Hints:
The complex is a heterodimer of chains A (126) and B (151). With 126 residues, chain A is of the alpha+beta class. Chain A is 15% helix and 47% strand. The longest helix of chain A is centred in the first third of the chain and has 19 residues, at 2-20. The N and C termini of chain A lie far apart (70 Å). Chain B has one domain. The interface between A and B is medium-sized, with 17 and 20 residues.
Amino acid sequence: MLIWKRSLGVLGAGAMLLASCAPTVVQESTQLTPETGKRLRLTRAAEVRLSTGYSTTLRAGTQWELVGTIPQGEVYRTRDQIVTLEGAHIHEGYIVVKQGALAGFYLPVERAFSPVTPVMPLSIEP
Amino acid sequence: MNIIHARVVMAVVASMLLSACATSTPKYSEMAASMGAAKSDMGRIYFYRTVLLGFAVQPEVRLNGEVVGRAVPNGFFYVDRPAGNYEVATSTEVERKLTFTVDAGQVRYVRLNISMGLFAGHVYGELVDEAKGQSEIADVRYTGAIEKPDR
Lengths: 126, 151
């Protein structure tokens, strides 16, 4: 009986450990200043590796519209595809572009910036 | 006698499990025309689950903390909500969350997936695009949303 209880305890602890080991998406709080009037188009697809181990793909040919700026770059949103960042949870993301490269993602619900390390050059055209 | 008894028990269990899936309500494709659109200042969120795998695991689906439905295999439901930020949460042995925005007039599709867990499957929401959502939801059946009476 004691062994059975101990086994259950070990299994329970294992379950909790397993649940807690999925990494969360890195988030840095930031401030978006709304801005519009710029668009860009991705001419080549980009597969972005996240620090969580998951990846997200930005499709070629997608159109992106400026929605604002944050200290880390310009924030663009698209209606041509779904962009999500997956870790322990899943978050919708907009891309953050600085000097033609992907600096990271803006999470609109969390109002946070999630960096991409190292920054990733993008093939874009206006 | 024991074999007959076991077969009866298995049949009852199978029947109970099948009844836990959406089997007798209309498919999305059969009721899409009669559902109507959301009001102009609202967005619509569809929740659906296609696979029967892990059919015994049917957690509640919470939207911004409010229970709006259940993750029933082969089932779908929808809610209309004002434009804004939303968090979908499902809990089994762990809690998984999905966050996304909804614009007025926008339609969002949340597919309820299941992954392996230690003791039970984990059900989690995944945001999918409209084309994929419309295609996948066509053959699943309406399970009904849990709505507050004042909505």
